[in-house]
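F.,

This is the one I mentioned.
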């Protein structure tokens, strides 16, 4: 991509537009002057999409269209005429009975479905795929003294053995996407965010926000599974996506992570900052010995990116949002 079009008048597509992160991305794209075409399963469901219509610029430059990850060709109309496509939509992360049917197949098939629609439309200049840092870090064969970078890939065998279906889905879907992009000469850039923290625009909490809410209410089970985790502010992730779309130099994968903390470190910070909340101080160690790790984000920073969301700010913004939406009591209540 030699030259990016000016954002005014440029139309981009955001898949899964009503989701936790996608909603924030839509907001930032609208603020920058883009025309945004968002895909949702039911554009007429006011409970699911109403928050999008409240965004500044939405009435003038937002269009919501129906699309389904598992219906072949479902994204053809949504992508038609768009210069950029942000594929953020992903299947649910909870397994009820069959992980292959419920998570793995939808993640892979859905991603390829979107990419096929992009390939059909010559207007599409670049695709930005939202993957996950779990596609980098879920492995044991690394030197903990060397930060993980974009060349690292999670272990399929380890994910299968520990039944880590979400990271497995991300690894397999991203691999399939790269294979398709290379065979079809599709300009694709992948963003690998760590645990996204920040305000929730949708009224229904995502699995990420639900995990945080559980932690703030004293639950430890879901966070115990993490052990050690990278964290990043939702606004930094949105800005990262827009940067790698607009920046002609952007190529390949980009880790998007602000801080990496053990559960105990995070709990200590939050307990001191929010003494009125029942934040746990001890976590069960589900997986046994965990290798310490950090991330090398120099590739993203070399594009001129600066992380603005500190741990304090991302959780301050998240908690303020949870209080505003009445999921948490106000301080002193």
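My design for it:
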């Amino acid at each position: 991509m030699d030259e990016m079009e000016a954002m005014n008048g440029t139309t981009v597509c955001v898949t899964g537009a009503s989701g936790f992160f996608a909603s924030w991305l839509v907001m930032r794209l609208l603020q920058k002057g883009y025309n945004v075409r968002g895909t949702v399963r039911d554009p007429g469901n006011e409970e699911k999409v109403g928050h999008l219509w409240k965004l500044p610029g939405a009435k003038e430059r937002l269009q919501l269209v129906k699309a389904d990850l598992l219906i072949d060709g479902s994204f053809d109309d949504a992508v038609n005429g768009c210069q950029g496509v942000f594929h953020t939509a992903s299947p649910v992360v909870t397994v009820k009975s069959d992980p292959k049917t419920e998570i793995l197949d939808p993640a892979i098939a859905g991603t390829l479905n979107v990419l096929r629609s992009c390939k059909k439309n010559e207007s599409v200049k670049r695709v930005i795929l939202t993957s996950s840092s779990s596609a980098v870090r879920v492995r044991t064969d690394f030197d903990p003294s060397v930060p993980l970078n974009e060349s690292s890939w999670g272990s399929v065998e380890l994910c299968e053995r520990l039944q880590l279906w979400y990271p497995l889905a991300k690894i397999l879907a991203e691999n399939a996407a790269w294979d398709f992009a290379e065979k079809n000469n599709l300009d694709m850039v992948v963003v690998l965010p760590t645990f996204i923290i920040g305000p929730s625009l949708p009224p229904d909490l995502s699995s990420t926000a639900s995990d945080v809410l559980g932690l703030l209410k004293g639950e430890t089970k879901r966070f115990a599974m993490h052990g050690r985790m990278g964290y990043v502010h939702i606004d930094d992730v949105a800005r990262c996506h827009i940067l790698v779309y607009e920046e002609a130099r952007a190529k390949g994968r980009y880790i998007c992570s602000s801080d990496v903390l053990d559960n105990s470190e995070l709990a200590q910070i939050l307990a001191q900052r929010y003494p009125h909340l029942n934040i746990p101080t001890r976590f069960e160690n589900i997986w046994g010995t965990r290798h310490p790790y950090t991330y090398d984000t120099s590739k993203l920073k070399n594009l001129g990116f600066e992380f603005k969301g500190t741990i304090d700010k991302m959780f301050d913004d998240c908690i303020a949002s949870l209080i505003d939406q009445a999921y948490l009591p106000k301080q002193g209540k």
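The longest helix spans residues 99-120.

Talk soon.
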